Amino acid sequence: MRPLDQFDQSHDDCLVDNHDDGHDSDAPVSALTPELSFWDHLGATRADEYAQDDILTGIPLPDVPVPEPTLLSRVDMAPPQSMPQHGFTRLDETLRAQEATADPARPAPPQIPLRADMRGPGGPAGLPPAQPTARREPHAPPRGPAAKNRRKAARQPSRFSYRIQRLWLTPLYRRAIKIGLPVAASVVAIVATLASEDRRMAIVAQGDAVYSAFVDRPDFMVTELRLPDLAPELEDAIRTAISPELPKSSWRLDLEDLRARIEVLDAIRVADLRLLPDGVLAVAVTERVPAILWRSSDGLEVLDIEGKRIGFAPDRHILPDLPVIAGEGGGAHVIEALDLFEAASPLGARVRGLVRVGERRWDVVLDREQRIKLPETGAIAALEHVIALEQAQDLLSRDLIAADMRNPGRPILQISEGAMETIRAIRSQNTEALQ
């Protein structure tokens, strides 16, 4: 590479000073001419292709005028007279020598076009007139049906890819791939894992071990039972029902089962169990209230108002304030029996109790072995009728065994044998007096 001398520098300054202001100083010489640019050739080529593909069928293409470029085939770059010669030749002579020695098969180098003010003998550079050259035609694409089919095949996707794209645009197919396929794979993996009984037992054993290690920690153990103030017998019964379960983890305690065990006891109506801090199980109970005594085949039972058994009484005098009933099925009609006791309250202490007859009606038992037989329905009205007769005529103060009120429209009085003899004697005396 030879060094830059003053001749090269002056030549470059000449080229820079003589170009138009509308172009960039770094643009090539070809850009300083009115020749069509690359984008103009590209647009013309695309328009020709679209016309061949029948895309612009029937639409005339615009005729773009292309000016004839003037090329600089010879450049006279002689150094000035003041500049000493260094063995350089003129530029035109150098170009002619290169053309003479160039390879015939080698393409000719591109020629540089110049502006109009740089051409001709009158130009500032004193250049010879430019020789007109033929216009370079853009590369013409191949024509014909075969080329057209090749271009269409290159642009269009295959039938298989088209069908795959259409399937992927289907929402159901897309959900099946994104959701259904992973779920199906997971199900298959789980089924394959659980198909073996040994693997299932191993998984269950491992899960139980992990669960036991967590729930049997000392922080969750229940060790103490707290009860309210109860009768000693009832407290012992509750402790006997719950104590075998303690100590035990709060995770393993079944409070509903423990509550059912406590409520099975006769004296307990409702039980409430709560877990307190420090491993304490608190029990709150609601006891049943004794309402009546029922003499059954099992003994003297203490019942509440609902007819639930509270316990057994060894003797009637232990609970003297409670009324007494007897007979089969009497325990299922406690409320009706209490209503009859309330209606018979005017008789006071003469009322000994009620007896259930045939599991369908009541008899009121009084002292002196007297009874008031009541009907199945309207028992309270029949009892009030007898009480009214007692208050008006001292009916129950007489030698009476039973007052049968089972038919309220026709009451029957059953008297004792002594009273019958007295009535017969009175009737005989009346007969003799009339004779």
General description of the model:
InterPro entries: Cell_div_FtsQ/DivIB_C, FtsQ. Essential cell division protein. This is Cell division protein FtsQ. Its main location: membrane. The chain is an alpha/beta fold. It has four domains: 27-147, no CATH class; 158-194; 220-287, Roll (Ubiquitin-like (UB roll)), CATH 3.10.20; 292-434, Rossmann fold (3-Layer(aba) Sandwich), CATH 3.40.50. It is built from twelve helices and 16 strands. Strands 10-9-8-11-12-13-14-15-16 form a nine-stranded mixed β-sheet. The chain starts with 5 loop residues before the first helix and ends with a helix. The model is unreliable at 1-32, 54-59, 70-88 and 114-127 (pLDDT under 50).
Short description:
This is Cell division protein FtsQ. With about 425 residues, this protein is α/β, with parallel strands linked by helices. About 40% of the residues lie in helices and about 15% in strands.
Structural class label: alpha/beta
Query: Any idea of the CATH class of the largest domain?
Result: Alpha Beta
The CATH topology of the largest domain is given as Rossmann fold
Which strands sit side by side, in order, in the main sheet? Answer: 10-9-8-11-12-13-14-15-16
Which outline best applies?
A: elongated
CATH architecture of the largest domain: 3-Layer(aba) Sandwich
Name the helicity range. Answer: 25-40%
InterPro entries: Cell_div_FtsQ/DivIB_C, FtsQ
Family: Belongs to the FtsQ/DivIB family. FtsQ subfamily.
Region (Disordered): 1-29, 100-158
Subcellular location: Cell inner membrane
